[in-house]
Design a protein that fits this description.
heterodimer; A: 203 residues; alpha/beta; Rossmann fold; six-stranded parallel beta sheet; two-stranded antiparallel sheet; globular; B: 174 residues; 8 helices; 6 strands; 20% strand; decarboxylase (chain B)
Chain lengths: 203, 174
């Protein structure tokens, strides 16, 4: 288990949380939402099984759905931020109806738009993403605040116990950028090759 | 030979099968209702009804990551909901075929349909999409075939716009 530290707010540090979620990841495919979550999955170890997003704000969860439907035997984790999730909040309804067993959506909630100057998001003012996911009909919805709960979440998403939604309350202090490749054609092609081998490039 | 005036939705369905389309993302439109029924009746096609059309762009990007081909069905008004998300298939260089039924295009009754219907092709082209129109029933199948081929062979967003002359304008009894 990863040692998970807390920051000045008493909440867990995002990099430690993501390192734990992706620990011993096996075949787990991870989509990192625009901004800090994309840097977080990269800091945990840049890998072909990672798709860090440089754009498409609001689209991460739906990318996870398309991928989970196409690869039903592999666990898929969407790791994104509260601002990104709020922009695509309707996708929780779309995903709930499809019930993909191998899809987990994990929101790293620092209650701020971190890339644009730390403006407050709606979650800062009490908007409850877990309740919204539950209301959409996603069967397993969790609010995560402790290291033990992060490890339990990690085990559930690796087991493919989805569809699963979790909000992890994280410390808001900014952390150093760890940037993935910026050429998005490489990002998609390397993930496709990791899944399907060289045949991916001849589809 | 089936009558193209009536059978163009069935011809699109046949093309989806020919191209091995496995995921169909859509916000319903009356013009697509027959095609949607055909897809829903097919166990090899996953039909996903979206809350907004841009969700489909994310979903079909994910499908391609996992090796499945998909198509996005929508009405012309939905194109307006997609604009920024089109950066995803462009930057990643991934296929995104779209089949768009037009409103606000030819004999429209509803004023709200006209602004987006009139701008649909320009908006898509401004965002780097290859756009072809079908304004006669017999043109629908070859145009959709070209749209599918260009998307999956050249890795980019492509669209067929099916004109209101093909679908018929909704008249609200007037």
């Amino acid at each position: 288990m990863t040692t998970m530290r807390t920051g000045p707010t008493g909440k867990l540090l995002r990099r430690d949380v993501v390192a734990e979620l992706l620990r011993d990841r096996g075949g787990l495919l991870a989509i990192g939402g625009l901004g800090a979550p994309a840097w977080d999955i990269t800091a945990a170890g840049d890998a072909p099984e990672n798709l860090p997003l440089w754009g498409g704000m609001g689209g991460a969860a739906m990318m996870g759905l398309g991928l989970a439907l196409a690869q039903p035997s592999r666990p898929v984790a969407v790791i994104t931020g509260d601002g990104e999730m709020l922009m695509g909040i309707g996708s929780l309804a779309t995903i709930a109806v499809q019930r993909p067993r191998n899809l987990a959506i994990v929101v790293l909630d620092n209650e701020h738009y971190g890339e644009t100057g730390m403006q407050e998001t709606a979650t800062r003012h009490g908007v409850d993403l877990v309740a919204m996911a539950r209301g959409a009909g996603i069967g397993e919805c969790r609010l995560v605040k402790t290291a033990e709960e992060v490890t339990a979440l990690r085990d559930a998403l690796h087991a493919g116990a989805g569809p699963l939604f979790a909000t992890i309350k994280i410390d808001e202090a900014p952390v150093p950028l760890v940037l993935p490749p910026r050429e998005a054609a490489i990002l998609q092609a390397r993930m496709r090759e990791a899944i399907m081998g060289k045949a991916a490039h001849l589809q | 030979m089936p009558d193209a005036a009536e059978d163009w939705p069935d011809q699109i369905y046949a093309l989806l099968k020919e191209h091995d389309i496995r995921q169909v993302a859509l916000v319903p439109d009356a013009g697509h209702s027959r095609l949607i029924k055909r897809c829903l009746a097919d166990n090899d096609i996953k039909v996903v009804t979206l809350t907004t059309e841009e969700e489909g762009i994310g979903m079909l990007f994910g499908a391609w990551l996992g090796g499945e081909k998909g198509v996005l069905l929508m009405q012309s008004s939905g194109v307006g909901n997609c604009i920024n998300m089109l950066s995803v298939p462009i930057a990643h260089r991934t296929p995104l075929p779209m089949i768009v039924t037009m409103r606000g295009d030819y004999g429209e009754f509803n004023p709200f349909q006209v602004p987006m219907g009139n701008a649909t092709q320009q908006v898509l082209e401004a965002m780097g999409t290859l756009v072809k129109r079908a304004d006669a029933p017999e043109d629908v199948a070859p145009t959709v075939n070209a749209t599918l081929r260009m998307a999956f062979n050249t890795y980019r967003p492509t669209a067929t716009l099916i004109g209101q002359r093909v679908i018929g304008a909704k008249t609200f009894g007037k």
